[in-house]
Amino acid sequence: MAVERLYASFKFSTYENYTPTLGIFLAVVQWCVGIFIFVLYMHDSKWEEDVSYCTFTEPRTGVRSLFVATTLAVIEFMAMATFFALLSLNQRRQKRIIDCSLTEKYQIDENIRSLKLMIPMILTHAVTMFPGTSAFGVYFIINWRNLEPYSFALFEETFNPLPFYCAAMPVILFWRHRVLRARLWYGIHRRNTVHPEASDCMRENYFRALHLQWNTALPPSQQ
To answer: What stretches pass through the bilayer (predicted)?
Structure first.
């Protein structure tokens, strides 16, 4: 996402005319990186042994796991810094655009809107990922000679708040989305509002009938 938004910010004048080649390329790179990390962890695993689900924290593969975790943390930090820098760049550009076309103005506004949407996502993910990664890294540096296969499993359950990301993300996105908030408050207000149309109609019908009764002359036979 950071690379795509970087490209959209610097090529804002011609971005909408490009083919989806960049998106396809980034998706392929993402899959390749994920497969590489999986193979890096599993290519020399001892499948004949019964161990805990996170077996890559033993001394033989501990350095490898620490390297991957550190790399992911650095990438997360770089992406977060990139989003904030791009938001500042596009906001400054928005203030000084005069001779830009409508397409360029729209793309700048779209860049700002998408960055404001993505920044809470990347911040929430970073806040929930860094504690577990940092704690395990410190533990590994201090006690790397005595690592056991279940060490990472214990850290996953004790220090890693990443599962809360799934619960916090919808709440944060909903609260940041003004349209959804407005619709929620409108729905609550509408449900709690008493609509007097029915009672007004009944009252008008009653007084109309009463008015007719009083103002209509009775036939001689009934007088």
So the answer is: 21-43, 63-87, 122-142, 162-180
Tokens (6 digits) for 76: 């997360």
Contacts 24+ apart (CB under 8 A), 15-18: 15/107, 16/103, 16/107
Stronger pLDDT, 169 or 223, i.e. the higher one: 169
pLDDT per residue over 58-82, tens digit each? 556 666 777 777 788 888 888 888 8
Taking residue 132's Cβ as centre, other Cβ atoms within 10 Å add up to 19
Query: pTM value?
Result: 0.62
In 3D space, the residue among 136, 127, 146 whose CA is nearest the CA of residue 70 turns out to be 136
**Is 95 a residue whose pLDDT tops 70?**
yes
pLDDT digits over 196-214, tens only? 555 667 777 777 777 777 7
Longest dimension (CA), the chain: 117
What's the token pair of residue 207?
């007084």
Q: Rounded to 5 degrees, what are φ and ψ at 97?
A: -75, 130
Q: Cα separation of 160 and 135, whole Å? A: 9
